[in-house]
């Protein structure tokens, strides 16, 4: 193998290139769209520091942290993926991966430990020279995991971290972008088009080109709240919790799709609970896209039992009696309530948005797809906001449904 083929820096694109040696960076933040080559850049950087290929610009590191949103995602993408660590090494230099120990060991003795951001306590205790963090914007407990990682980066003369992620508006990412110790690189999906299927590029460009979602997911831009959206990310973030008090009541809300199969809308499925403290807690987003009625009904029933819910609440404007029928085919004993949309989506969502603004609704963990949908404007004629519709029905059932007033007997 020639030196040019061995060293990633000879043929990486601009957005994947290591920051200049003279920059005093502690974090190299690589923002990019889907398929833009972020994973490859992160994996090549780990390979280089594990083998000492970029000395003296970066010294060889003997202890490396590999952090993904979950262990399964870290393994599937960062380690065993097509652009992951095992794929980019030559046979004689490839590390040995031990999944049970969550560990990679190189022939020269370098060791990398694999961590899940959903389990930030795992980062307490170990210490490292360097870290590779993937999809930071998806991390379930981002602030806590990042803080523990910074405490662990204490070996060597210059401990550093590389972060590869498609951006989403979140406090930690914005903090890193504004930090003078962060070197920032950007890459767009189309920059890597030569390595992506033509059909994929044509499809995503036609669907999302020029849209707010496309700017974020394809161009790697950090998109803030839509000023015309009913819900604000800052409000959601401020009320976010990791656990709930005792729940007095739990419901599963369903917004059935308008059509079946891949061409139809998603089936919005949201589970929420009413705490004994009088606040609402969003517990699950189990939304399914392109599923048959039997499949989404099975998911609804499974979630109903898993959460020990007291009721399934389903909009029946689209499916009528069919919605209840398919759910009862899975379980005839499910407590079921039909709801009819007699007002527009905006009018139904406004009272729920007011509860969020009052700090009376909390998300238990992160629901990225739901929150993205919430923070976009609800436009007439736009594609159904399936997750938001289901959320509105759940919160309405728990917090806004008026109880029947007792009849007064006149004597």
Folded structure, characterized:
This protein has 411 residues and is α/β, with parallel strands linked by helices. It has 2 domains: 3-217, P-loop containing nucleotide triphosphate hydrolases (Rossmann fold), CATH 3.40.50; 233-400, 2-Layer Sandwich (Nucleotidyltransferase, domain 5), CATH 3.30.420. It is 32% helix and 18% strand. Strands 3-4-5-2-6-7-1-8 form an 8-stranded mixed sheet, with helices on both faces. Strands 13-12-9-10-11-14 form a 6-stranded mixed sheet, sandwiched between helices. The longest helix is centred in the C-terminal third of the chain and has 15 residues, at 386-400.
Largest sheet: 8 strands, mixed
Q: Helix count?
A: 14
Structural class: alpha/beta
CATH class of the largest domain: Alpha Beta
Q: Mean pLDDT across all residues, rounded?
A: 86
Task: Please name the fourth-level CATH homologous superfamily of the largest domain.
Answer: P-loop containing nucleotide triphosphate hydrolases
Q: Report strand %.
A: 15-25%
* CATH architecture assignment of the largest domain: 3-Layer(aba) Sandwich
CATH topology of the largest domain: Rossmann fold
Shape, please? elongated
What is the CA-based Rg, rounded? 24 Å
Q: What's the count of strands?
A: 14
Stretches with pLDDT under 50, minimum 5 residues = 403-411
Q: What percent of the residues sit in helical stretches (DSSP H or I)?
A: 25-40%
Order of helices and strands: HEHEHHEEEEHEHEHHHEEEHEHEHEHH
Amino-to-carboxy terminus distance: 100 Å
Give the tally of structural domains.
2
- Walk across the major sheet and give the strand order: 3-4-5-2-6-7-1-8
């Amino acid at each position: 193998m020639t030196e040019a083929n061995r060293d990633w820096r000879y043929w990486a694109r601009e957005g994947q290139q290591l920051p200049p040696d003279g920059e005093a960076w502690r974090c190299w933040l690589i923002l990019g769209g889907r398929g833009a080559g972020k994973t490859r850049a992160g994996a090549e950087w780990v390979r280089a520091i594990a083998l000492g290929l970029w000395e003296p610009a970066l010294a060889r590191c003997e202890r490396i942290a590999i952090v993904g949103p979950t262990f399964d995602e870290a393994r599937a993408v960062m380690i065993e993926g097509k652009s992951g660590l095992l794929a980019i090494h030559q046979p004689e230099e490839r590390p040995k991966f031990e999944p049970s120990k969550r560990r990679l060991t190189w022939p020269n003795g370098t060791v990398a430990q694999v961590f899940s951001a959903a389990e930030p306590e795992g980062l307490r205790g170990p210490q490292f020279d360097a870290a590779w963090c993937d999809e930071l914007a998806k991390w379930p407990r981002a602030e806590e995991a990042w803080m523990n990682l910074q405490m662990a980066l204490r070996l060597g003369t210059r401990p550093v971290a590389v972060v590869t992620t498609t951006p989403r508006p979140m406090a930690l990412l914005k903090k890193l972008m504004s930090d003078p110790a962060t070197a920032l690189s950007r890459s767009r999906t189309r920059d890597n088009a030569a390595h992506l299927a033509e059909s994929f590029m044509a499809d995503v460009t036609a669907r999302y080109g020029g849209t707010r979602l496309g700017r974020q997911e394809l161009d790697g831009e950090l998109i803030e709240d839509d000023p015309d959206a009913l819900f604000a990310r800052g409000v959601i973030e401020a009320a976010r919790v990791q656990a709930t008090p005792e729940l007095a009541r739990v419901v599963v809300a369903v917004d059935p799709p308008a059509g079946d199969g891949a061409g139809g809308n998603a089936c919005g499925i949201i589970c929420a609970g009413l705490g004994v403290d009088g606040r609402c807690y969003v517990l699950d987003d189990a939304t399914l896209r392109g599923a048959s009625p039997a499949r989404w009904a099975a998911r609804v029933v499974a979630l109903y039992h898993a959460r020990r819910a007291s009721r399934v609440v389903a909009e029946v404007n689209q499916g009528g009696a069919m919605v209840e029928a398919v759910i009862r085919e899975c379980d005839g004993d499910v407590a079921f309530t039909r709801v009819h949309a007699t007002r527009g989506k905006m009018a139904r969502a406004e009272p729920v948005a007011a509860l969020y603004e009052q700090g009376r609704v909390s998300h238990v963990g992160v629901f990225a797809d739901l929150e993205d949908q919430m923070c976009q404007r609800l436009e007439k004629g736009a594609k159904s906001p399936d997750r938001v519709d289901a959320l509105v029905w759940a919160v309405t059932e728990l917090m806004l449904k008026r109880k029947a007033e007792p009849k007064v007997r006149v004597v």
